[in-house]
Amino acid sequence: MRESERAIGEATRRLRDLVRQREELARQLADLAARTSAVQTEIERQQNEIGRTLHTQYVNGRTEPLRVLLTHEDPNRTARHLHYLTYVSRARAEVVSGLRANLVALAELSTATQTKQAEIAAVEREQAAERRTLEREKTTRRQVLETVSAQITQQKREYATLKRDEERLTQLVEKLARAAAAKPKPKPRTGAADKTIANADVPQAGVGAAPFASLRGRLRLPVAGELVGRFGSPRPDSGFSAKGVFIRTGAGQDVRAVASGRVVFAEWLRGFGNLVIVDHGDGYMSLYGNNENLRHRAGDEVRTGDVLAAVGASAGQEDSGLYFELRYRGRPFDPLPWAPPR
Questions:
Q1: Same domain, 197 and 294
Q2: Which of 109, 216, 232, 291 has the smallest set of CB atoms within 10 Å of its CB?
Q3: Residue 325, SS3 per DSSP
């Protein structure tokens, strides 16, 4: 299950990168098309200008400098006529030179366009291959889940299993907290309600960083969805008290950072699936579990509202959604007074 969900997350990330690459190539191709159109318009203008010049010469008869000199006209008039012919000849030569340059530029743009089209075709083939890989991995995950579903259901009913998962997470958080305390600080009510509530508002990007302790009541939950698991409420499969909240929502939804900080863990962890932990400084951490895939790695700086992951059902969850915790010095506390549903 771990390897399958890791593979799904990696394939999704590669596919997202390929989509961005194709969009950039399409933008470059559109730019080449605009430049090609401009050059073609200029070539047409130059061809028309040369055509008009040739037509004028044909109608008026060819007038060459030597013939002008051999005529017995007034010298002043002859000088003016020669000056005019020199000007016309120079202008015609400039038009022809510009036309040649534009024809060369058009050939180069054509070659560049063919190259970009080939690159786009290659990216599209790679996208198709990644989609097939992603579908294979999802099929593998479904098969694995079907194979071990009975075992997972039984394990979820065992208090000891859940306790081990919780202890594993607690040990991880304490380890990360000790590591964070040894580094310079980054810049920046228990109980369960009977009625299920929903959250419709999520963190917005661009909110300035502030000390985490000052954000009580002003945070927003990481995803919009239905709160079906509350802090301190007994889990239906074991009676084990929940240390966070579970927000049920559609797979693939963006999971956003509730506040600025630094990612200190971004990996698969037994019992919590693809898990992200963000250190907000002063002993505060936020945890985001059961994700489909992760968008950041340990060490990345994130700001309020940044996308950390995509909602999933990793770790064998039946429903897609986000498991969310807040901790202070390793100890979990109820996140809802800090991030009330909106």
A1: yes
A2: 216
A3: strand
Low-confidence ranges of the chain (pLDDT < 50): 66, 68, 186-194
pLDDT at 83: 52
**Under a CB-based contact definition with an 8 Å cutoff, are residues 258 and 279 in contact?**
no
Structure tokens at 205: 């990007």
Q: Residue 330 gets which letter from DSSP?
A: T
Domain boundary among 98, 129, 154: 154
Q: Residue 142 sits in which domain range?
A: 2-154
CB atoms within 10 A of CB 61: 7
H helix runs in the chain, sequence order: 2-60, 65-70, 75-156, 159-181
Give the span between the Cα atoms of 147 and 4, in whole angstroms. 13
- Contact between 313 and 274 under an 8 Å Cβ cutoff? The reply is no
The conformation of residue 41, written as its DSSP 8-state character, comes to H
* Number of domains, the chain: 2
User: 167 and 92 in one domain?
Assistant: no
Query: Phi first, then psi: what are they for 289, rounded to 5°?
Result: -120, 170
CA neighbours within 13 Å on the CB side: how many for 115?
8
pLDDT of residue 193: 42
Question: Does residue 149 belong to any structural domain of this protein?
Answer: yes
- Whose tokens are 């489909």? That residue is 292
Judging by beta carbons within 10 Å of its beta carbon (0-12, 13-18, 19+), is residue 321 exposed, middle or buried?
buried
Q: Which residue, of 91, 125, 154, is where some domain finishes?
A: 154
Q: What pLDDT score was predicted for residue 189?
A: 40
The reported pLDDT for the residue numbered 58 is 63
| Model pLDDT, residue 262 | 95
Tokens matching residue 216: 């009580």
Note the pLDDT of residue 138.
81
**Looking at the structure, do residues 142 and 251 belong to the same domain, yes or no?**
no
Tokens for 270, please give them: 């037994």
